[in-house]
Every structure is written in C-alpha cells, then in structure tokens.
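dumping these here so i dont lose them again. two proteins, back to back, each one seq then structure tokens. dont judge the mess
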Amino acid sequence: MDEELPRVLQQLWGIEGRQRPGPKPAFHISDIARAAVKLADAGGLAAVSMSKVAAELGFTTMSLYRYVDAKDDLYVVMLEHAFGTPPDLDAHTGWRDRITAWALAFRDGLRQHPWILQIPVTEPPLSPNQLTWMESALQAFDGTPLSPPDRLSSMLLVNIYVRGTAQLTAGMHTEPDAAREADLRYTRRLAMLATPDRFPGIAATLEQPPSEGYAGDFDTAEFTFGLDTVLDGIQALIDRRG
C-alpha cells in the first residue's frame, strides 16, 4: 500500500515507505507544518515558500525535500496541522445539533486560518485529520434513514455552504465592536443608495424590522439563516427517506 501513496501521506499516516538516501532527518514533518502555518497566519498563503519554511526551521531549503516533494505536499501538511481534530459530537443529541456543531467548528477553523480558503482544492482529502473530519460529519447523521451516499452528499452540502460563507466574509472578521460598526455603516450606506424606485427589492428588505429584514449582520445572523435553510433541506430528504 505504501507504494500507492505519495510520500507525504506515508509520513502523515506513519507508514514506513522507502527512505531517501542521505543523512538521518533532523526534524519531523509536524515541525514543517507548524512553521508553515505560523508563516501563513502572519502573512497569508503568499508568505509561505519552501525557502521561508526552511529558514523558519533554521535549515536549508534542500533539507525540506527529504519530507515534501513539492509545494502541494506542503499544503497537505499545513491543512492537516491547521484543522486538527473535529469536535466531539454528543451522541445523545439529534442529527441537526450534531451537524450544526460540526459546521460551527469547521467555520471557526476557517476563521482562525483564512489562508486555507486560498489553497486550491485539487483532490478529495486523504490525510488522517481530514478523513477524521469527514467521518465525524457522516456519523452526525446516525439514527436517520439516510443511506451512506445520502450522508456523504449531505456532508458535502454543509461543507460547501460553510466554505462559501467563509470565503464571502473572509475580509470582514475584525474585533467584535469594529465588526458591528462596519455592519451598521454598510447598512446606512446601502439605505442611501438602494432607493425604492431603482432597487425596490433591497429597499423593501431594509424597511423591515431587524428581526425580520436585513440586519447587516453577515457574520452571525446570515450564517445561521443559511445553515438552518440547508439543514431544512436535509430534513426534507430525511422525511422522504423515512
């Protein structure tokens, strides 16, 4: 099996593959992950390069190639380290509470490391933590009549929704007070520009009470509304299957 897996996955899974010739490795692949994540957290994905990661570790760039073959491998290692393990889901709650807890934890991970959204998705996840996240979401649907393919599709739907909203609001996450002021400022400006004669739909929304219309809260209210709507759709599927 080790011959079928890229070398970076062999290391993440603890599978002994063919060793490269040369001196004994001076550090572990997790050290590379921590160094790369530190650089990305400070300066975004553009701040990460093989040479900069090597410098952060105090080694030469060539020494990294004993662990990763290319920058894409470095991304795999970064994602594995950044997300960690998924939250413990309470088996005594319903599927909706469990998948909501999973979605919120996923969102929090993307907020903490927004550069994750800049990494191209070229293939499904294969690293240990990434598969653990997938398994956790699938098990959130335990007790429902959903088939394994239904569960996978439902998990992907929630995943896509969380990633999409995180991408939309990636530049909006600041201190809470500043975020609220930014929301209010946007709402005021929107009200000035979206006149009823030209933008009747937007104007009608702004005329509603905050509890019923648009409150300018991208970060909480809109995320919750969208997630609840997605889960309503999954509930409809569950009702049909049941």
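---- next one ----
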Amino acid sequence: MEKLRIVFMGTPEFAVGILDTIIKNKYDVVGVITAADKPAGRGQKIKYSAVKEYALEHNLTLLQPTNLKDESFLAELKALNANLQIVVAFRMLPKVVWEMPKLGTFNLHASLLPNYRGAAPINWAIINGETKTGVTTFFIDDKIDTGAMILSSELEISPDENAGHLHDRLMHLGSETVIETLALIEKGNVVTTIQKDNDDIKTAYKLDKGNCKIDWAKSAKEIHNLIRGLSPYPASWCFFKDNGQEWNVKIYEDKIIQEAHQEPIGKILATKKELKVAVKDGFIQILSLQFPGKKKMSTSELLNGMTFSENAVVC
C-alpha cells in the first residue's frame, strides 16, 4: 500500500468541503493550489478564495500561481514531491501539471459524467428538470471533463430543490466519493471506465447574463426550474415595468399556480401580500426577490412599501 502525498487544487466553497474531509481522514496534504487573490465588491477589496481561507486556517502550504506553466511555479510544485493531485472546481490544467505526479491527477466533478461537463453542472441539472444527478471522479486528460472515470455516485433531485441546497448535498456526496477513490488508489485497485460520447450528452454551459434571464413565454415548469436552478447564485432575473419605470429584478423563489386564465403573458397581478405573473399555462407566484439597491426580501415585505398598477408587466 503506497502512502499518498497529495496536492489539492480548488477555489470555491464546494472545494473546501472536499479538502476538509481529506484532512479529517488523516491524508497527507503537502500543498494546496488556489486562484490568485482578486479585488471584489464595490470597494474592490482584495478577496481570498474559500480554499485559501481554509489553507491559511490549517497551516497548509499554499501556492497561488497566475500562470500554471510558469517555470518557478512548476519548480515549487515539483518540490512538494506529491505522488497524487486532486482537483475540485479549479481550472483547466496544462499537461505538464497533471502528468507530474506518479499516481496521476484526478478530478471530482458534480455530475454523472459524461453528462454536464463544464462550468455549472449543479445549476444546469436543475434548470433542465433532471430528477437525479451525482458526482464523478476521473483521471484528468487534455480535454475538459472527458477523462477515464474512477467512481460515480448518484442522488435524487427533489422537485422544488434549489441549486444552493443541491450544492451542499453534492459536496457531502463528493467528499465520500473522493475518500473512496483515495482508498482505491492507495491499494492499487483502481479500475477506470472510458467515457462514451453520444449526441444526447447535455452540457453545463458557463452561466451569463443571457442564459440567466427569465423567458416568460416558456411553460410554468421551465420558468420554475430556471429560478430554482439559479438560486441563490447567480439568480435569475428579468425586467419589471410599470408607469414608465423599469427595474432589473432578481428572483430567488417561486411557486407554480396551475390555473386557466385569459391574462396576457407577463402581466403582473399584485395584492397587498401576493405577486404573481401570468404565463401560458398558469401563474408564477414570486415568493422572494431583490430590487436594485435593495436587499433580498420576501414578496410580502416588498409589497408593504410598493404597489403595482394594472399595467405592470415583466419582460
């Protein structure tokens, strides 16, 4: 049985959950690689990645390269003398990096590969109305999320579950799957499965302003899936228009009301406590949202200080 010397690479909160489990299972993490510090927010203050915060707190050796092919970084990485690298939500690695350790470099991806390769697998599984998803460990190759699979584990997606809740459950499942993968590698018992491409593979495209905008012409179910699939981050959005004013509004939570009606699509119907939007097969009742310059709030909180006219619409 070979003693593992691990370099861990990751950036967001999802990666922290996995790294923490590796540490708690007494594996030897000889180095952590994370993204360079970036200015963020209105004050453009320097923000550390979640993984950096964790590494500093646990006195782990930390590297933050801006260029993964830089000779000085490669020398530092080699000096760590790792025999295995683990990647969770980091970035594409050059061959010189993923080929370096004797036992290879494996990635944990938050989908059942080959489906949902790409940047936002958790969000797209919900947006597309999937009823199950999972995690996969695989050895990295020279393409994105295409390498030979080691283990996969699946779980069911609840009908009204949002991306934040699913993220946390997949982080827990991913932690277990990484530990199982490490045990196989330690014992030399890894059996891999080559990914098979086909025309039905779904992609986890990078999220942007365009694909996060609500199209109110779609069915209530499709709109509901988009809203929960983007909640709490980055959040779905649309324009509210009323009496010559227009607001860019984020929507976090909703409920489908299945009810026949004659209202035009996109019409806002508001009472003192309730706000719903007419869609082709019923209504979307908005439960929480955020207007520009304001905090996220429940619809009833918003309607305490705001009223909408008969002509109010979303688009």
